[in-house]
Amino acid sequence: MRTRTFAAALALGVITGSGSFNAAAEVSEVKITKQYGLGFLPLMVMEANKLVEKHAKATGLGEVKGVFMTLSNPAAMNDGLLSGHIDFGTNGPPAVITIWSRTRGTGNEVKGAAAMIQVPMWLNVNRPELKNIRDFTEHDKIAMTAIKVSIPAIILQMAASKEWGKQNYTRLDPFTVSMSHPDGMAAFLSKKEITAHFTSPPFMYLELEKPGVRRIMSSDDVMGGPTTFSNLYSTSRFREANPRTYRAVLAAFTEAIGFINKNKRAAAEIYLKISGDKKNSLADIQKQLEDPNMLFTTTPRNITKYAEFMHGVGSIKHRPASWKDIYFPEIHHLPGS
Known about the structure:
By secondary structure, the chain is an alpha/beta fold. Helices cover 41% and strands 16% of the residues. The protein folds into 2 domains: 3-119 and 227-331, D-Maltodextrin-Binding Protein, domain 2; 122-223, Periplasmic binding protein-like II (D-Maltodextrin-Binding Protein, domain 2).
């Protein structure tokens, strides 16, 4: 069963945090999960500045606690949402599209609450023979957060489809392995088995500082421009049972994004404090946040492009009429795509 993925993740300790997992109508605490890296900074700002608590009080809910956890596996994130162990998750478009299609028309649909950030992911390699994706062989291993459903997994399929034809879209799949961003970077830099890493900030920047590491592709290359990297998402069951709490979390999330865009240095300080990152300095993180290719925004970008490809190759059953099918109505006024 799919829920075993989440249970296994919990048992292995890939989730960190505190708080009860009991649910109640208009809950007294909201369980929110993030993943590793700068792409999930808005949740770190929400945690540090107690924005859930602030907006819950403003909504008239009284004392509502935000409980923040870290989970490294996109599939386990989906399982946690469906089982009710998580109220809000964070995931890339392919994982959100996958669970949206699977739950569409059921009593507990999963949809995006808002986009979070636009930033490219980089495919870094450590073998000089690897100049482009045509050079990968059975001797290579490409690390990514999850096979089949992560951004890197779908981007590689899209790239393979362009390179060798749609019928060969899975050509690179046998070379992919699932690893968290930190574990993937460690394995990649050891140069023992992992020869490529498709990763995100700050890991992709750190890798390029090492001798012999090069970038051969980015997600923007394949998508034809900037694309949403991560989303906040939830279930219709939670949203309908806790309408004011849902709105409070969305308001807190929106404030956190505004804070990051106006206060890069303060946001960098929060990242280092909450993430426990010891490999980057404050100046490093601030510089990355000032990269013009990194934009924190609630507006979804290029979501339908992912969905159309995934539907075309049979990865999802349902094809959305627009990006709005995949997100709850609260953000339908935004100029998404």
